[in-house]
Each structure stands twice: as structure tokens, then as C-alpha cells.
Amino acid sequence: MAKRGEENRADEHLKDKGYILGDVLGEGSYAKVRNAYSRNHNCRAAVKIINKRKAPRNFVVRFLSRELEIIQKLDHPNIIKVFDVIELGPKVYICMEIAGHGDLLEYIRLRGSVPDETAKLMFLEFVEAVDYLHSNNLTHRDLKCENILIDTRNNIKLSDFGFARTFTEGEFSRTFCGSAAYAAPEILQGHPYNMPAYDIWSMGVVLYIMVTGSMPYDDSSVRRMIKEQLERRVRFPRGARVAPPCRSLIHHMLTADVTQRATTQDILASDWLKDVRSPKKDKPVE
After folding, report:
1. Does the UniProt entry include the keyword Chloroplast (predicted)?
2. How confident is the prediction for the chain on average, in pLDDT?
3. Are residues 260 and 134 in the same domain?
């Protein structure tokens, strides 16, 4: 009963702030996301609720406050917009725009590999979002298909900044972040790493998945995966229709030598993307 009363009081407080909460969209061990409507913005929204009592102490102390500071400063059309951050007792409510067409992984599972022209447009928006971060000395450190959302106009919306942080030129990190399947070899080997370069590797994995519908490496054995990464053994499935300029770009991003790995500017200037422009999408895609 006490828990129900606490939730009702929180709902009323959020209602006073202009948010009417709806059904639960997803739930984890210490966080859940609820559907909502924002009266102030006259649109559907999502509210991520983090319970600091249930969350690991390391997460609360090292990552949460940094994430909350970063997400409120972000302003890019291909990054999920945060409207408000509201703290009520042990819970944090992150009120943000909603991307109604799910994430990129769901998109690929439903449709298979993404055709070249569509992949170019989607990946361009993704690169522009990451380029915005890197240009503002921010790094994501958890880029993966699940964190790339798609809105009702089929625009890419980058989300989940739980491992994001600021960086200075030449600064290295020792913190393992993200998922092993998307991790660069220097991360898996436990070496100090250049943070923007880590993002680039993960982007290469994302692009490979987009155009082939499969993973570039088998992550069931990390030791074998590191060996393949260091030997530049990026194979494409037989019969995969991946244009040569796209294959070349993937190899440039999945380069073990960090000094030779692509940057966001290299990607934008690549033969595969250099002439691509993202069209204006005024109407929702049904």
C-alpha cells in the first residue's frame, strides 16, 4: 500500500509538471520506461524512471550524475531530446521525446539487411549525431543497434547516455563500457583507450549489421574475437549485397590500429557517404 501511495504521489507531481503517465513500455532491475503525454510540448513522451535505491552504487556514484548533466545539454535533431529531469526522493524521472518505431535492431530483425540507399540515409543521421558529440568533446561509449531509435518519420535518434562522458584531446580511459560484441580490441584487451576512437569502432559494427543483417565477429569467444579483430579478418556473408565503397568504409572503421582508424569526418567524406544528403521528413511514416 505504501508503495502504491508513493507511486500515486509521484504521478500527481509529474502531472503538475505537465506529464500524464501511461503504461509501462519496458522494465529492468532498477529502471523502467513509461509512456506519457507532455501537455507543455503537446506530444507523446517517454519517462524513464530510475530507482537509486535499487541501482548499483557504482552506477549512481560514477555514472548517473554525469549522465543527467550531459543529456540536459544535448541539442541535435538525431539525438533524443530530454525535456525535464525531475528528482523525487530516491527516484529520478527523465522526461524525453519518444521514438515510436522502436530501435534499429528490431528494424533489422523485421526487415533483414538494409538496402544500400536506405542504409546511407540512416547511417548519415547516426554519424551526424556522433560527430556532434565528438565536436563538443563528448563520447557515448555504448553505441549499439539497441541504442539507435527510429521515430515515426524514420529519423534516427541516438539514445541511452549512461556511459557518456566528456573528454579532452589525447585523454584516455580505463573504464570498460558497452557491450563486448561492439567493443574495440583495445577495450577487450583492457588497455587504456581513446574514447572517440572506441565510438568509431562500434559504429563500424553497427554499419556491418545494417548492411548484412549479421554480426562481424562471433562474440561467444572473446579471445577468438580479439584475434580476428587484430588480424583484420572482417568477412562478409556470401551473397551479401554490400557496395565496395561501403565495404571499404567498414574496414576503415574496424581498424585495430587506432592511429589509422577513421574519424567521424573521415566517414562523412568517404566515397560511400560524401554525396548523401538527409531528406526533410515532414510526414510520419505509417
Report:
1. no
2. 92
3. yes
Catalytic residue numbers, as ranges = 142
Give the Cα separation of 54 and 38 in Å (integer).
27
Q: What is the pTM of this model?
A: 0.92
Asked if 68 contacts 43 with a C-beta cutoff of 8 angstroms, the reply is no
Rounded Cα distance, 68 and 248, in Å: 37
The residues, ordered by sequence, that sit 6+ positions from 36 with a Cβ below 8 Å of its Cβ are 14, 19, 20, 21, 22, 44, 45, 46, 47, 95, 98
**Is the CB of residue 253 less than 8 Å from the CB of residue 191?**
no
- Residues annotated within the binding site are 48
Listed in order, strand segments (DSSP E) in 77-216 are 82-88, 91-97, 138-139, 148-150, 156-158, 165-166, 172-173, 193-194
Q: What is the pLDDT of residues 120-129, one digit of tens each?
A: 999 999 999 9
d(CA 153, CA 43): 14
Range of the domain at 260: 104-268
Inside any domain, residue 237: yes
Instruction: Specify if 197 maps to a domain.
Output: yes
**What is each CA distance from 210 to 50, 122, 136, 143, 228, in whole angstroms?**
31, 9, 27, 14, 20
| Residue ranges at the known binding site for ATP | 48
Q: What is the CATH number of the domain that holds 136?
A: 1.10.510.10
2 inside domain: no
When computed from its CA atoms, the radius of gyration of the chain, rounded to whole angstroms, is 20
pLDDT digits (tens, 9 = 90+) for 66-81: 999 999 999 999 999 9
